[in-house]
Amino acid sequence: MSAAPPRIDADRLLKRLDAFAAVGATPRGGVDRQALTVGDREVRAMLAGLGVARGFTVEQDAAANLFLRRSGTDGALPPLLLGSHLDTQPTGGRFDGALGVLAGFEVLEALEDAGVATRRAVELAVWTNEEGSRFLPGCLGSQAFAAGALSPEWAGRHGPDGARLGDELAATLDALPGAALRPLGRPISAYLELHIEQGPVLEREGLAIGAVTGIQGTRWLEVTITGAAAHAGTTPPAYRRDPMVAAAAALHRLAGVMARDGLARLTVGRIRAEPGSINAVPERVVLTLDLRHPDAEALDAIERMVREELGQAATEARCEASATVVFDMAPVAFDAAMVALVEASAAVAGHASRRLVSGAFHDALFLARLAPAAMIFVPCRDGISHNEAEFVEPRFAVAGAETLLEATLRAAV
Amino acid sequence: MSAAPPRIDADRLLKRLDAFAAVGATPRGGVDRQALTVGDREVRAMLAGLGVARGFTVEQDAAANLFLRRSGTDGALPPLLLGSHLDTQPTGGRFDGALGVLAGFEVLEALEDAGVATRRAVELAVWTNEEGSRFLPGCLGSQAFAAGALSPEWAGRHGPDGARLGDELAATLDALPGAALRPLGRPISAYLELHIEQGPVLEREGLAIGAVTGIQGTRWLEVTITGAAAHAGTTPPAYRRDPMVAAAAALHRLAGVMARDGLARLTVGRIRAEPGSINAVPERVVLTLDLRHPDAEALDAIERMVREELGQAATEARCEASATVVFDMAPVAFDAAMVALVEASAAVAGHASRRLVSGAFHDALFLARLAPAAMIFVPCRDGISHNEAEFVEPRFAVAGAETLLEATLRAAV
Q1: Which phi and psi (to 5°) does residue A287 adopt?
Q2: Are A256 and B266 in contact (CB under 8 A)?
Q3: Rounded to the nearest 5°, which phi and psi values hold at B40?
Q4: For residue A235, which of B259, B359, B381, B203 has the smallest C-alpha distance?
Q5: Can you name the residues that pair with A215 across neighbouring β-strands?
Q6: How far apart are CA A119 and CA A186, in angstroms?
Q7: Domains (ranges, CATH) in chain A?
Q8: Nearest to A232 among B251, B290, B386 (CB)
Q9: At what angle do helices B394-411 and B10-21 cross, to 10 degrees?
Q10: Global pTM value
Q11: CB contact under 8 A, A279 and B269
């Protein structure tokens, strides 16, 4: 084995990002490579071929998760797992998912190039259907890996193009006959995922690396405030039961509270007044609330506060409010030692970092149920993602890979 | 002439309200008798026949306004005009318009029964197409009377049933061959209109009569607040440009200001967030504002305040707001002496009254351009109108007619 320390080959990584982005490339510079399509199979085959050429073990499982393993010196130890995804949104970007996979492969190659022996095997996972845009659920592959099984009802689901999920999984597996089929799930020592932030924080603060401490919990409420329809001209305020007055009061007060909590998020994405006549006090206002917080108890407390504010504002306006939870995903806190490892690795690699919470879901959310997990974020321009304009500066892509390499060296011992 | 004072025959008035409500009666107790339909022609013919039987002069004009005149002792004086309308909304009520017309006819009959001679002629007008539900514009007849002409573009307009306004006007005039055609418009000494309140104030305050001081001005704004679309999970409040935050702040503050002004009205009848994704900060919020005030300068001041609040709230949320006036009708203040006459007449008739402003449009708005005008309101149950459930207690219908009679006696001298 060589004594030279392993290093990321920036040129190789960036060229490979370009090569993979060419598969499903859109005229506007993005990528359309939805899960289990021909394009998805093509990049899986490209990566498998690169892995075989480097002597890595290539396997897949029943969820069409793809694994490339560089062996360690102690075959009895569970491997360190790196991973992300290669599928995209229909008008997706070049980096969401692909950066984590290709940086992970770059780490395996860097170890190989430097002849570094790790005690544990280091395995790169490509998770199937993280995006969920063609088939539900998103994070299908990582969920199946964490559960050790595919949910029975998934196979019969159809995408908007009419394709059946079970058929597309089988065809995708068949398209890579050289990769041995292995059981779903297996013990791992830890999980590391590099991903773009998909938000504005790192860019605004001029930082290359985010040490992700967890993934926010998300809870969606559908709120209905019911008053009484009335003539806009003939009904004085004192005789109105105006649900817009209640909605404005509640939302204004909630926005004030949220602005003072650095970790809470509240978003009203949809709102309508019914019946929607320009010269009538509406009978009801229906709106959605997207609530997020990295702490489960805090998320519960936010929901309670939202319900209290809605009730109070409704009462003030002689209206009634009701709220129904229509989606609920608990937060996950990443392992403290793993987060510290990411921070230390960024520092060793020479990159400024900060801790932050992921506002979006990731495969790491499910892997964290199996083993200590953490994520590394790099900035993307203007925080834009799920968009053909998604862009990551080359220096940040490289910084992410370098941090992942340092973390791998420390976690794979 | 008899010395007995004229009196309203409550039984005759109420039976006549029933008889007219039977034309176009709906199964749910309302009336569908839209302007210039066969039903509208039928009630015009009924009223003309009643007028002829009492010896009144029956005429119509090119707008199909119908007039019944009881002569005065001095034919050189312009007449006192009473009036309202007989057309209804498609699912309208029994009293909106018809009460004013039939109470006006009851006043003429009461004068006739008592043999009271008035110096001025007292003329009852039935205005064409007040509602505007079949043909635009509403208040067609009173507008044409006030202008002395039909607007040239009206005749070519079509209703939702395909009928052409010009054809329906001609057919309506032809359906009443016994009524002489007279020119549009003529000098009048004053105008009085009895109408249901179409709002909750009189009922809530237990009053039989409202002395209407004017008709609110109405101004409609379409407001757009533009921010930036962003991921609901990944974008902290400090980095958001959330137009819903701006809208809630502006509407909450405006509702507070409006609640302290007894005469101002502000209504948000429509609101939407775009693009309308549950988990995205919207790019823009579009909403309508219906602003009303009886004073023109106050209405201007409200619009200025609305624009300032929108601008301030938008700036606070790093958004931009714009507002466009899409409808504007100036307020009208009724003649002070006429309003005092209505108040005094209610008192003489033994009915408690208060002054109030009309929140809805009425034919009186246009008559007030020609001569001193005023309106008498009576309560309707729950303030409901433009609805088959519209209802006026018989005692209030009679109280309105009694007040109209007393006012007529004083104005027709």
Answers
A1: -145, 160
A2: no
A3: -60, -45
A4: B359
A5: A332, A358
A6: 18
A7: 10-215+331-411 (3.40.630.10), 217-329 (3.30.70.360)
A8: B290
A9: 110
A10: 0.81
A11: yes
Q: What would the pLDDT profile of A274-332 be if each residue is shown by its tens digit?
A: 988 888 899 999 999 999 999 999 999 999 999 999 999 999 999 999 999 988 989 99
Neighbour tally for B76: CB within 10 Å = 6
A contact residues 266-305, partner B, Cβ 8 Å cutoff:
267-273, 276-282, 285, 288, 290, 292
DSSP string, B177-221: TTSEE--S----SEEEEEEE--SSHHHHHT-SEEEEEEE-EEEEE
Length of chain B: 413
CB nearest to B235's CB, from A199, A269, A282: A199
CB A87 within 8 A of CB A101: no
Q: How many CA atoms lie within 13 A of A369 on its CB side?
A: 15
Specify whether the CB–CB gap between B217 and B294 falls below 8 A. yes
DSSP A337: H
pLDDT of res. A236:
87
Name the residue with tokens 């359906």: B175
- Please report the residues numbered 177 through 206 in chain A whose beta carbons come closer than 8 angstroms to any beta carbon of chain B: 197-201, 204
The phi and psi torsions of B22 (rounded to 5 degrees) equal -75, -20
CA end-to-end distance (rounded Å), chain B: 15
> Cβ of A291: how many Cβ atoms within 10 Å?
25
Tell me, yes or no, if B251 comes closer than 8 A to chain A by beta carbon. yes
Q: What angle do CA B104, B109, B115 make, to 5 degrees?
A: 130
**How big is the A-B interface in CB pairs under 8 Å?**
194
Residue type, B92: G
Beta strand extents in B260-393 (DSSP E only): 265-267, 271-274, 280-281, 284-293, 320-329, 332-333, 353-358, 373-378
Rounded to two decimals, the ipTM of the complex is 0.81
CA distance B331 to A355: 60
DSSP state string for A248-269: HHHHHHHHHHHHT-SS-EEE--
pLDDT digits (tens, 9 = 90+) for A11-57: 999 999 999 999 999 999 999 999 999 999 999 999 999 999 999 99
Contact B390, B208 (CB under 8 A): no
d(CA B14, CA B396): 11
Q: Note whether B278 contacts A200, CB cutoff 8 Å.
A: no
User: What single-letter DSSP state applies at residue B6?
Assistant: P
**Per-residue pLDDT band at B276 (split at 50, 70, 90):** confident
Distance CA A358, CA B40 (A): 67
B chain contacts of residue A383, beta-carbon cutoff 8 Å: 230-231, 234-235, 239
Task: Kindly give, in sequence order, each residue whose CB lies less than 8 Å from that of residue B218, ignoring residues fewer than 6 positions away.
Answer: A233, A279, B290, B291, B292, B327, B328, B329, B361
Alpha helical stretches, state H, B260-386:
296-316, 336-349, 364-367
Which of B236, B278, B386 lies at the smallest CB-CB distance from A270?
B278
Instruction: Classify residue A374 by its DSSP letter.
Output: E
Nearest by CB to B234, which of A234, A262, A359?
A359
CA distance A342 to A82: 13
Question: B201 vs A231: CB contact, 8 Å cut-off?
Answer: no
Interface test with B, best of A252, A292, A302, A380 (most B CBs within 10 A): A252
Residues in chain A: 413
